[in-house]
Design brief:
By secondary structure, the chain is α/β, with parallel strands linked by helices. It has one domain: Dihydrofolate Reductase, subunit A (3-Layer(aba) Sandwich), CATH 3.40.430.10. Helices cover about 20% and strands about 35% of the residues. The protein contains four helices and twelve strands; from the N terminus they run βββαβαββαβαβββββ. The strands form two sheets. Strands 1, 4, 5, 6, 7, 8, 10, 11 and 12 form a nine-stranded mixed beta sheet that branches. A three-stranded antiparallel beta sheet has the order 3-2-9, with no helix packed on it. Strand 11 and strand 12 form a beta hairpin. It is globular, with a radius of gyration of 15 Å. About 30% of the residues are buried.
Length: about 160
């Protein structure tokens, strides 16, 4: 399993249920990497999408304990324990954990790669991602040049879990 996330300098990822900022280059990269694959996400992340609908050309697995929650175009999963069985139904497609904060926390131990957009700034945030630079089991395997989009500086970094 992989994950994909955008973080600021403090590893903040969101505020009030939304992204810290919108970077069109990052959104295009997200679309390019995840298209044709599977996203695992929580309810709040789904509700942050345009029209609160699943994104086109991707399968969505909604991880929620709320058995009453209704959403079209998603496969429901009610526990981490159930997730491997649910994901088997998607065959060889790549799986990307796409948020939010508690979903990332719960699934990070099951991920092997992390596609991180590092935003070179700090924003007010109420949701954070674990700082992979401080976790010994993760290492940077690829780091792109700093880019700028609409005044926001960022770089794409690929982390990989170290082999044991």
């Amino acid at each position: 399993m992989n994950l994909i996330v955008a973080v600021d300098d403090q590893w903040g990822i969101g505020k009030d249920g939304d992204l810290l900022c919108r970077i069109s280059t990052d959104l295009k990269r997200f679309r390019s990497i995840t298209s044709g694959n599977v996203l695992v996400l929580g309810r709040k992340t789904l509700e942050s999408f345009p029209k609160k609908k699943p994104l086109p050309n991707r399968e969505h697995v909604l991880l929620t304990k709320n058995l009453e929650y209704k959403a079209e175009g998603v496969t429901f999963c009610n526990s981490i324990e159930e997730l491997p069985c649910v994901l088997e139904g998607f065959g060889e497609k790549d799986v990307f954990v796409a948020g939010g904060g508690s979903i990332y926390q719960q699934l990070l131990p099951y991920c092997d790669k992390a596609y991180v957009t590092k935003i070179h700034d700090t924003f007010p945030a109420d949701t954070y991602f674990p700082n992979l630079d401080l976790l010994l089991e993760w290492e940077i395997v690829e780091e792109g040049e700093e880019q700028e989009d609409n005044g926001v500086k960022f770089s794409f970094v690929l982390y990989q879990k170290k082999s044991k």
